[in-house]
Hints:
heterotetramer; A: alpha/beta; Rossmann fold; 3 domains; 6-stranded mixed beta sheet; 31% helix; 26% strand; globular; disordered C terminus; D: mainly alpha; two-stranded antiparallel sheet; 13 helices; 72% helix; disordered N terminus; binds magnesium ion
Amino acid sequence: MTADRPIVQLSGVSKHFSGTRALENVDFACFSGAIHGILGENGAGKSTLIKIISGVLQPDSGELSVNGTRVSFANPTHAVASGIVCIFQELSLVPDLSVSDNISLASPPRRFGLIDKRAQRRCAEELLARIKCEDVDPNALVRELSLSRRQMVEIAKALGKDPKVLILDEATSALTSRDVGTVYELLADLKAQNVSSLFISHRMHEIEQLCDTLSVFRNGQHIETFAKGARTDREIVRLMIGREVDAQYPPKPAPKPRPEHLRIENLAWERQIKDVSLSIGKGEIVGLGGLDGQGQKELLLGLFGVLRGMQGRVTIAGRPCTPGSPAEAKQASLRIALVPEDRKTEGLMLAMSIADNLLAASYARVSDGIFINADKARQAVEDGIAKLRIKTGSADDPVATLSGGNQQKVVIAKWLMTDPDVILLNDPTRGIDVGTKQEIYRLMRDLADQGKTILLYSSDYAELIGCCDRVMVMYDGGIVASLSGDAITEEAIVAASLNVGGAVPHAVPGPSHA
Amino acid sequence: MRNARSPLAATIRQNSGFLGAIILLLVLYLIYNLLHPRGFSAALLIQNTNESVAIVFLAMAQTVPVLLGGLDLSVGAIMTLTNCVASVVVSGSPQQILLGMVVTLATGTAFGVANGLIVVYGRLQPIIATLATGAIAVGLALFIRPAPGGTVDDDISWALTNDLYELVDTYGWFDADAAWFSSFAWVPVPLLIVIVIAFGVWLPFKHTITGRTVYAIGSAEGAAYMSGLNLDRAKIAAFTLAGFFAGCAGLYLAIQTSSGNADITQAGAYTLNSIAAVVVGGTSLLGGVGGAIASLVGALVLRVISFYFRIVSIDPLLQPLVEGLVLLAAVSLGAFRTLRVKNQLALFR
Amino acid sequence: PEVVSGPGADPECFAPWSAETKYMQWPAKPGPYKIAVVNGFVGNGWRIQMIKTAKAFAEDPSIKDKIAEFKVVSTGTDAPAQLGAIEDFINQGYDAIVTIAVAPDGFDRVIRLADKNNVVLVPFDNVLDTDAVMQVNEDQLMMGRMWAQFALDELKAKGVTAGKILEVRGLPGNSVDRDRSIGINETFKADGGAWEIVSVVGNWDDGTTQKVVADAIAVHGQFEAVVGQGGSNGVIQALSDAGHPWVPVAGESENGYRKAIAKYSGEGLKGISIGQSPGLVAIAMKAAVSALEGNVMPQLISVPLPVATYKDLEDGKNYWSDLPDNFFTVNEFPPCGVNISGPSIMAQTEADLN
Amino acid sequence: MKIAIPSLKSEDKPIFIASGFILVILSVGTVYTLSTQGTAPLLSPGYLLQQLQTGSFLGIVAAGMMVVILLGHIDLSVAWTMTAAAMMATTVGGDLAIPVGIAIGVGVGLVNGFGVAYLRVPSMIFTLGVDSVLRGLMVAHTGGFAPQDSATPLMRALASSKLMGIPSAIFVWLAVSLVIAIMLKRTAFGRQIYLTGNREMAAYLSGVRTRRVILASFVVSGVCAAMAGVMLAGYSARAFQGMGNAFLLPAIAAVVIGGTRILGGQGRYAGTLVGVILIVLLNSVLSIMQMPEAGRQVIYGSVIICMLLVYGRGNKVQS
Ligand SMILES: Nc1ncnc2c1ncn2[C@@H]1O[C@H](COP(=O)(O)OP(=O)(O)OP(=O)(O)O)[C@@H](O)[C@H]1O
Ligand SMILES: Nc1ncnc2c1ncn2[C@@H]1O[C@H](COP(=O)(O)OP(=O)(O)OP(=O)(O)O)[C@@H](O)[C@H]1O
Ligand SMILES: [Mg+2]
Ligand SMILES: [Mg+2]
């Protein structure tokens, strides 16, 4: 009925940040009852677009109309009042408030002008049930939840605002496939109620499965909008990054015997890691799979020296590896690197320059005695930027001005500059566009070929399948399956993730063909 | 942990610092009374509450900006300013006295509003903005009262610093010796004042959207903004409330001493003690966690510690050292938590 | 207490402030007594010396037997805490409380409670603006006048009748500062000479005083005399660092200041030293005991100003050239039997203690 | 007067504005002296050098304070660190005086750093506790036996003698400034201070030993305060109780006026230098104008607010 009148429409919208052109003369429309995917590489302007739609940013020029009337939102509250609800790329939950407080943060049920905690809790329970998250305690603090649970709470919170237009800016980047499935169903439900959704994701298969209209952005420009199926994947990728991308994943080398490098025996810590044993060869990429929060993060942190009171034995090239801190882990004798989960709080000093961030882990390498050698430092920064093709104006700009994907590249580049030997990656491609992802995959393989040992946790099964020589699936703190070669399939990973067989592994999985 | 789904269990888990402070307070105060020759008497309770009111109010004042993630270094100065204002206006007929009290509280509140406006529209860091406005407040106090003195009404001073009996007796509202009254005639008026303000102003505020926004800002300002909360209003409200509580402290101080005194060192000492009280109460200086009631308890803990110097024998020249060590120990109590932390990332926030 | 007519006991020691001073009498209590000293701020030399004097005097044979329990607490510059401490000692059943008030007002409640419980409350040094309690002090107004008069006399002797005088004030807002400054200024005004008084604020603190005096010299060039309320060591230091010629100086009773006067008076540093003595605490304690014994006491006890000019300085008697600068030389009051000298408590060495 | 250079980097802005304000203060003071006594002593080298001399004590304290503030912490113990260092130095006397004073600073810094970095007590409150412990120690020290309090000749020489007509204290201040400035800009430790101040968790995960950085920074602050205390004792020729009290708030104000972010992570040393000069001159001119305390406090507060407002209102927080 309203298919011909867009619910949200932008015409001629431009937005500039000091020096960067984030959006340029963009015309864009979204219709009721549509699930509209937005694609584009990192820094294409997707987040800027939805920030304008949801009132966080105001366009420099151009207009925004909702339901045919011209509007100008001064802040997100105005947008919410018009039914536009956004789940932002950087979550907007308050960690020290409870889940139920968060869900009805801006407009809680009230009695006598005061917040009615009980009604609020009921409301939270209903919404959580609707997205099948009954396991989340409405009284728990958001701080106590894992990232994927937080994303689900964020979705519940958005639902509670009764949206006409629901915007998800990479809101599924940390979700496991079960939750993604729930979100699919939810969006389908909403669609049936004539609610339209704007969906941003760098996971092509998600977009494909879910959306009925796709729009591609590149360099701040709206390139094209088309119906699902009108274009092939290849074509879409070309539209996005302006060039062909053939194979997403670099070819895996043939399985071959590798000398054992990193060996983990009977590792245990608190209740999160239970008797994990694992051995990785030189030049091998081992994936960690499983649902979110099954101890993968702790395992990586533990190897990196962050956890105290670990039990078990870890050796690197036969020598014991017991770093007491990241500083010890990165030292010459161990040379471990960790790309952490959350770049914003764990990876970057947002207000500092790109150069300072890149050098953060390698001052020792660019210093002569106690003084920093300015030439060496500049050279190292240039190399880092070039190696990962970080899209930046100047290395002296604050890292906060980079798009999410480029920020992620800064974190990776920072660690590559230390010339690590063992590389621990915690979901390194979260929020990264296909083009960049491909570069990162190639880089990982190159590093492996140079003899580095790589342990990769990813919430994206495709990535595990495409990149890893072997995949360990974790469940409740332990490794429940070790897959290698052709056995690495989505079915196998999913089955193991849910621990369907209830298998408890005994044998120490060794390097392939060792 | 996940299984503890009852709201009570969650509350206890999330307020362990506060509960610790309450237990500490009860233990300390019990022992003090046991050691004191007139322990467990109404006279002692009146004396103890009287001497705690100002710092309790100030600790509550400090809490609200701290919850925002800022510090208000002007609370002591606002107390001093309102103390001086009260010493001028709280006298005369009962109506004038009442008006004077309102004016005093309004002064504190207005100064808080000014702090809020500067922080919000000047986009200055609270800690440094209030360092500056604190100097201004003390300056104004000195203008009003270049030398200590003043004329606060004697009756009100006596009535409000004693028990209910004296209050009723002073103003002759009814027969203070009435039988029904005797069972709570001993209740100290200052205690009632603190309870009424703490539970009548703070608790409702905490359960408004603005109050919750204060917590949200302290915990994650960006998220609060993105969630469509009105940050500016909450920030201004927080400093306003701080000004109001500091005004309560200044007013009570004026009533208690029947005078005003623009004492710069006292203003500074009170500000710093208010921060200490907030920390001892279990409110995080990073914001988002804690509350004014907790700080009330924190302030009482610090006060009770100082009571001990009057009943135990220590060399008077070692007293400042012991005091310092006890303060250091009190604020380091929370450190035991860090020794238990197994995931070092939990140490940073 | 009852207001009675004089004369009071031991007038040599407990001199009434003026002819109008009224007298008070408490009902006699059998001794020995419980006495507390409630100090405010601690953390400067004067207060430390005061506390040491109090402790030493409590052990003095003349009074030891009359004291059953003696306690000193410091509450900091915190009026409620000081009031609370006084009230606490009243509640604990102490017989007398000696105090340095953090403010000249605000003690109505504790005065009322003390009277109700027949407790003798004796403020000294920083006294109260009330005549309802017995107090012990030196006459600050008179001190200001004597300082100014001395400077005027010395200037006259030099033949100087006009010029700039530097006045160094104390802690702003304090009544002692106010009274001394009034005394100084009215004396200069009364003189009729063309004196221009430049005031700077030294907070009674050596460091601050030194800085503000140095600044004033840099800006004004030269002063005919310096009348400082405190921080006298700082005045001397600033004058000497600036190469300012020695001129008449009025100041307190720090040993360092007296040393300097003794050394340079020949070169023109004609100095007068009048100090607020930490020994006041002993007189206040003695007065409290006397009141408890039922003697008639003046309401305001005036302790004579311990004046010493460059003419009467004598090494080893009223200053000590071989001892540190920071203690206050005037500590003892022989008419009162208070014989604890500054050096005897402030110049003990570690060896002396053994 | 000075036209602001158009493309001033935001970090340099405070330095230029504060410098401009220094000129304003001097002009106001000069107008005052011209109108009251017809001379302009404030513009004489003698006066200015004297201000720099007394400013050098504050300057050295502020240098250390800045390092700690860059971390997002604060050191409220500087007042009694100064006093304790000075008193212990004069008590010991002789050649050991200065080393003992500095050692006190190291000790205090270690305690502060331990409490803040390892026990993770907020610095605002831990250093406050350390300050009162130090005060207690000094009271006990004076109370126990009479310590010697006169400064050694070397202390006197460092603080109040002149070299080529310039007070030697200024040279000490310059030397400290140079060390701190180079340390902040050109050493790994300095950069790690900024990293830690911006986000300790990310710095820690980058392999920065953030706890040691914090510990060391507090030691720097403690040593600076101790040096200032020892020199102040040299300037006054003696050490005395409470001699550092007048330095805490001005030191913080100077750092902030110099453009250092009070929450840490941003700031240039040159700013602190200018901030110290501004504060010292402001105090001095107000004292010369015989401004009553009330007016002085109001002006003090207003200056800080106005300066910060013109530096540009802080950036909005991003999510
Ligand atoms: N606050 C800002 N200041 C300066 N530049 C900015 C700012 N926010 C975004 N930009 C720039 O605008 C461009 C578009 O950024 P935007 O966040 O919209 O990208 P995106 O498409 O969401 O990328 P990603 O997929 O990485 O999230 C980028 O070049 C980015 O560097
Ligand atoms: N991204 C954000 N994150 C958190 N808070 C924000 C954000 N943007 C704005 N705010 C808050 O909202 C308030 C209002 O912002 P707004 O942009 O309307 O300010 P303004 O008064 O228009 O300022 P200016 O005149 O500088 O543009 C700000 O004071 C700020 O605290
Ligand atoms: Mg984005
Ligand atoms: Mg705006």
